[in-house]
Amino acid sequence: MSKAIYPGSFDPITYGHIDVVQRARKVFDELIVAVVTNPQKQTLFTLEERRELCERALEEAGLGDVPVITWDGLVVDCAKHHGAIAIVRGLRANSDFEREFQMALTNRDLNGEVESVFFMTSAEYSFLSSSLVKEIKSFGGDVSRYVPRVVEAALARKLRKP
Ligand code: ADP
User: Which residues constitute the domain of residue 16?
Assistant: First the structure.
């Protein structure tokens, strides 16, 4: 049985991430979304808030059977711990490539048994990022086309915007 993990900050989860989940699920028998800590990134939502939002957003998108976990440590260790053969990542534009390439080679160096697998974003979400959504919402803009309702509500509460 082929199992994969989809790790990320998911701060917060967007329709771009959900699109990757939908695609990856068709390729692997089992997919686990792993919300990870990243010491380089200051997040708006706590790890637990991000996990809960992923769970509720996936449920809203009809993907409630995709498990969501948290992980504080190396992604390759997460994959090993959960018996996953692959790490799923999404690619938007050229700008993602450099970073993802470096990370994939590093992860391979750390554990040669886990493959990194990349899914191309759908064109409609190619510009979409969690940062952009937070920025739009912080100025009171409408993000309903980019995130599920539960995420939109959480952003409104966190940023105190309608
Ligand atoms: P990280 O901090 O690990 O990059 P993110 O939550 O920003 O966490 O992204 C997780 C993964 O999802 C990354 O591989 C990123 O390229 C991908 N991703 C983010 N937004 C999109 C999108 N709109 N379309 C496709 N993939 C995306």
Answer: 3-126
